[in-house]
Structure prediction request, 494 residues.
Amino acid sequence: MASTGVEGLDDILNGGLSRERMYLVEGTPGTGKTTLGLGFLLSGAAAGEVGLYITLAETEVELRAVGVSHGWSLDGLELFEMVPADGFAEDQEQTLLHPSEVELGETVRNIMAKVDELSPSRVVLDSLSELRLLSQSPIRYRRQILALKHFFSTRQCTVLLLDDKGATGSDLQLHSIAHGVISLDQALASFGAQRRRVHVVKMRGVRFRGGYHDFEIERGGLRVYPRLVASEHGTTEGGDAVTTGSTELDALLGGGLAPGTATLLTGPAGVGKTTASVQCVVAALQRGDKASYFLFDERMSTLLKRSEALGMDLRPFLEDGQLEMRAIDPAEMSPGEFASLIRGAVEVHGSSIVVIDSLNAYLQSMPNEQFLVLQMHEVLTYLGQKGIISVLILGLHGVAGDIRSDVDLSYLSDAVVQLRYFEAHGEVRQAISVIKTRTARHERTIREFQIGSTGLQLGEPLRQFQGVLTGVPKFSGEGRTLLTGLEEAETPRR
Prediction:
């Protein structure tokens, strides 16, 4: 197999490209075809293979400028510019700017002569749009491509043909000739960065991963994020349940957090969801485990400062590398890149607990709710198979009464913890309860909680409630059954 020079694309292609075959790379201008072609040749050059870049559209100066922008040196490649500087002299009346049968024949013969001269192992032809214009008819164009395919097959070359989709519609005839077709496209969202995706249309003799895969053009080439398919990853047996850092919360959950499960924390703004998740992370870090925290909603400095004020300082764990915390901008990050970060947290960083705070902001990075559910299903299944504890935060609209969420992910979660407000004796208080767990027999009571110096502090079960299922529970008991005020209770919380 011949590496494409892009690790993620090789993963999608199950190792790379079959050698001595001709492939089509198509995409509109700006999708990264030239970058992919140069990276393909440089990958071969690193392995001692001769690479030839034949350009019919860009000049050698432009190609070298592309290399400089990526930090590449193209000195090890042969760059063959088909329109030389003297091409406009009086004795050079036939040029690529005047298509004709003579010009097409000369162009093809020059390509063949250069290949015979250098005997390259890898060739990139940029671009087919020029040959299409020179051919002037679909029949002659197809015959020339077939002739080139036969010629390259006898020269033991692996060839990439670049096409900017200049033809009207999809060029299915060209698809049928090529051994494989890789399509690059980009879409401009209403807000945020453009989204680039790669799609392997066909690849003969290769079991590739189908569908769209997000990618970015970065300094150093293309970075492709293969679509996460949970079934491709092995299953790890989970261990015993671990503590959340609160004995009472462990009791509510039926013993704590079980490895390989996803726990969803839901509730309105300011009720304490993030504080509860940080408490779980701190408990894991104090056990010596590694953790990853993906922060969508607030600035990292704000979270660190607030956690420190609550006696859960995360900075020492960040400094020694035990905790990995990333602030995510959903307007600039594609869903595929985020899934890649999740894999890196597990397979590279070695985290045993992963927190996503919150799913509301993550939803905004997706085209619609269906895609979010499908994406999160794969992510959570992958984390579960790896034996990772997942903590998900989902904010609800409203404070009391008819509160609702952007999307219902409770069926994907193994445990659902609901945090809510209630009113008692003219004060707004907070209560916590577990809606479901799949791994243990959980406590079905409602407990009041306050946020103190060590995180969530839970009181005894509150049984004097009416109308819990209406969304506006009313407390009818006596004041002595409620928690007394804590000094830290006024600390800003979420």
User: Anything to note?
Assistant: The longest strand covers residues 427-437. The chain has two domains: 7-227, 247-417. The longest helix spans residues 101-118. The CA atoms of residues 246 and 426 lie 28 Å apart.
